[in-house]
Amino acid sequence: MYKNNPNISIPDPDTVVWKYLDLSKFLDLLMSQKLFMSRSDKFEDQYEGTFSEPTFEEIKKIAENNPEFLDVYKTQRKNVIISSWHINEYESFAMWQIFTQNSEGLAIQSTIGRIQESLHLENQFEQHIGKVNYIDYKKEYIPFDDDFFPFLFKRKSFQYEREVRIISNLSSHNLSINEGVKIDVDINKLIEKIYIHPKSENWYKNLVIQLVKQLGFDFNIGKSDLESDILI
Q1: Where are the domains of the chain?
Q2: Do the strands 180-184 and 34-39 form a parallel or antiparallel pair, or are they unpaired?
Q3: Taking the chain, what is the end-to-end CA distance rounded to the nearest angstrom?
Q4: Strand 133-135 and strand 153-155: pairing?
Q5: What value does the CA radius of gyration of the chain take, rounded to a whole number of Å?
Q6: CA-CA distance, 218 to 188, in Å (whole number)?
Q7: What confidence tens digit (pLDDT) does each residue in 43-102 have?
Q8: Which of 128, 188, 110 is CA-nearest to residue 1?
């Protein structure tokens, strides 16, 4: 279930967020009614869940007399799971390019408030929501008085992601996590609107609409602003 963490910066409930994904992942979400959360050390960014240089220097000093202190953070990366969302009032051309291929894919539009409501089911694990901070890892400090802080900071080169995360720490559950974990969500609360790739062909759009209908959902499927008619 969703649990508020006073240490974590959470955007306003009305903040619009997006998730861009291919059709297979979208159908898996609808059919399982579970949201996939990836193991943090499986992301492309090798710095995921690590510390900036100033923080690491401080941690090393602490670890001199307590070697296990550093080991805790190393193993934690395998036990923290994350679902990433993009903050933007409008859909993003860049996100379409990065997260979809061959002019196919979908974008889920939601809000922070809807995500919070969708996580109110009796999940086995606690979920937290936090906005990612983008910093200079050579100069800026990452606090480590909360287990989630290393996973809510990224290098400035990732600023374009404008990321907010659903995040869980499963360290106390003694699980062997491979790629990630699926958690229960209320799909109808989670999804406010769906957009189909703006460059997709009509057969693909019709296929998505038909599949959504056959699975028993009645989502608002909108036309992408990126395929609007040109006015001259």
Answers
A1: 16-227
A2: antiparallel
A3: 51
A4: parallel
A5: 19
A6: 9
A7: 988 888 888 999 989 888 887 887 777 777 778 889 999 999 999 999 999 999 999 988
A8: 128
